[in-house]
Design a protein that fits this description.
alpha/beta
């Protein structure tokens, strides 16, 4: 398994009351390692899947600690690049007392150091891997090189649009993407809709549209409403597991990792998607981006749908 994309540090504040401008607001603040690709890689490793990560961290203390954390989780991070040009990437989020994201800022400048030449130097990993996961934080030229190497290696590509502003980077690659997992806002951006998707019907329509454009499996997450999925042969809806949200950070990444793990282990798509919902639910109840004791047994224990 090969994973390419962002790695960094998350700082998340959960409000204790109403957010007021131009003054401080009482909150619970925590920090942990993050980044979409890094989160997916760690989740996969904790599920027992061998995984190589290609990313960039700064030549700083955060970078040192992040690499140590990856090694402890079982991720092969030997191909993670160190840069002195930028600090390790960071993500700053504010969530309300109900656990819903209100505002978020990210500084992903470090990923600009992941050049096409550095990717080409790791061409051997593309030939060895069984599947590739990417996030849309990759610079456009680097993304083009990644997709080209994946095509030559006949490597299935799983892609996360990452944010509304970055989703457009994936539009020209629909025909090369095996698995796409956007949330409702990202899915709307992928289809150049001006308004977010409203409910299951529209989500299912967009999932089928992505399949018609060449995506093999499209899964659109709808937060507390669950998710919709489509392939050329089937489509469906999976409700969310009722969960008290402690921290939403990383829930979508856990879902992606669980679905990919299931596919790699020949678990049927319907069951793979259910395991993904289970992983997201477990992560929503944890104050951090990755549940540290994640296991396949825990995923099955969580299943109630």
């Amino acid at each position: 398994m090969l994973v390419i994309g962002a790695a960094g540090v998350d700082i998340v504040g959960r409000l204790r009351g109403e957010l007021r401008p131009k003054t401080s607001t009482s909150a619970q603040i925590r920090s942990s390692f993050g980044g979409v690709a890094r989160n997916v890689a760690e989740n996969l490793a904790r599920l027992g899947q061998p995984v190589n990560l290609i990313s960039v961290v700064g030549d700083d203390e955060d970078g040192d600690r992040l690499l140590q954390g990856l090694a402890a989780a079982g991720v092969n991070a030997e191909r993670v690049v160190r840069t002195s040009q930028h600090a390790t990437s960071s993500y700053l989020a504010i969530i309300d007392a109900q656990g819903e994201l209100q505002f978020a800022l990210d500084d992903m400048r470090a990923i600009s150091s992941l050049t096409p030449d550095l990717i080409r130097a790791q061409a051997g990993l593309f030939k060895q891997a069984s599947i590739l996961f990417i996030d849309a934080n990759l610079p456009k030229d680097t993304l083009r090189t990644v997709m080209s190497l994946a095509r030559r290696a006949r490597l299935p590509v799983c892609a996360d649009p990452t944010s509304v502003s970055l989703a457009a980077r994936l539009r020209s690659y629909f025909a090369r993407i095996y698995l796409m997992i956007p949330n409702a806002a990202e899915a709307a951006a992928l289809c150049e809709r001006t308004a977010p998707l409203s409910g299951r019907r529209q989500a299912l329509e967009v999932a089928k549209y992505l399949v018609s454009q060449g995506v093999d499996i499209a899964i659109i997450t709808l937060a507390e409403q669950g998710l919709c999925y489509a392939t050329s042969e089937s489509s469906g809806y999976i409700p969310a597991i009722k969960t008290a949200i402690l921290d939403p950070t990383g829930a979508g990444d856990a879902l992606s990792a669980a679905v990919i793990f299931a596919i790699l282990n020949d678990i049927p798509l319907y069951d793979a998607v259910r395991l993904g919902v289970s992983a997201a639910s477990l992560t929503l109840r944890y104050r951090g981006a990755v549940v540290p004791d994640l296991s396949l047994e825990k995923l099955y224990d969580q299943l109630v749908i």
